[in-house]
Design a protein that fits this description.
44% helix; NADH Oxidase; 190 residues; Nitroreductase domain-containing protein; oxidoreductase activity; four-stranded antiparallel beta sheet; 8 helices; 15% strand; globular; 4 strands
Length: 190
């Protein structure tokens, strides 16, 4: 898959087939994602991949997002809000969940937090594109701190902060792309 084609054809998938994702497929994704452009000094993030009974327990926790994200849903168009509410009932039946964690930092190191998030997010986006290359669908999972702490406890991730999630599986839908407005850019000295 050519890079620009992959970027433009990737969609947030909110409905998945009940087919497990082989560990080998996930390993191929990680093998290539390690080439993401990151700040090497801040390579403190980890990924946790979950399926089975633990996936179901975490999906139950994440259904709380519909209450926590109520204000965000209010900003969406009615169709997007409906899709989001439906998705969060069981994360679209995705068989696999992936979470990004970073080190919990003492107050005097909180400046490092933004670097940890930036570098983790860079690799995370590559994982999303590489999953698309493998024929997988994915959808981002918002993990507010309150729910992140519960996930941390369930997974025994002492000392790690859960910052984001991804549902992963074989797509059972083909969403049509919505228009993507260009970001604003300010040019100085051009």
């Amino acid at each position: 898959m050519e890079l620009l084609e992959g970027i433009k054809s990737r969609r947030a998938i909110r409905k998945f087939k009940k087919q497990e994702v082989p560990k080998e497929t996930i390993e191929r994704i990680f093998e290539d994602s390690r080439w993401a452009p990151v700040v090497a000094a801040f390579r403190g993030w980890d990924f946790v991949i979950v399926r089975g009974e633990m996936r179901d327990r975490l999906a139950d926790l994440l259904t709380q997002n519909t209450v926590i994200l109520r204000d965000l849903f209010a900003m969406m168009d009615p169709d997007s809000e409906k899709k989001a509410l439906e998705y969060y009932k069981n994360l679209g039946d995705a068989p696999t969940l992936m979470f990004v964690t970073i080190p919990e930092l003492p107050e005097e190191q909180r400046w490092e937090y933004s670097f940890q998030i930036l570098t983790a997010t860079t690799e995370f986006m590559q994982i999303w594109l590489l999953a698309h290359r493998e024929g997988l669908g994915a959808c981002g999972i918002t993990v507010p701190p309150y729910i992140g702490r519960q996930i941390q406890e369930e997974l025994g991730l002492g000392g790690r902060e859960v910052i984001y999630g991804l549902s992963l599986g074989y797509p059972d839908e083909e969403p049509i792309a919505k228009p993507h407005p260009r970001v604003n850019a300010t040019y100085i000295g051009y």
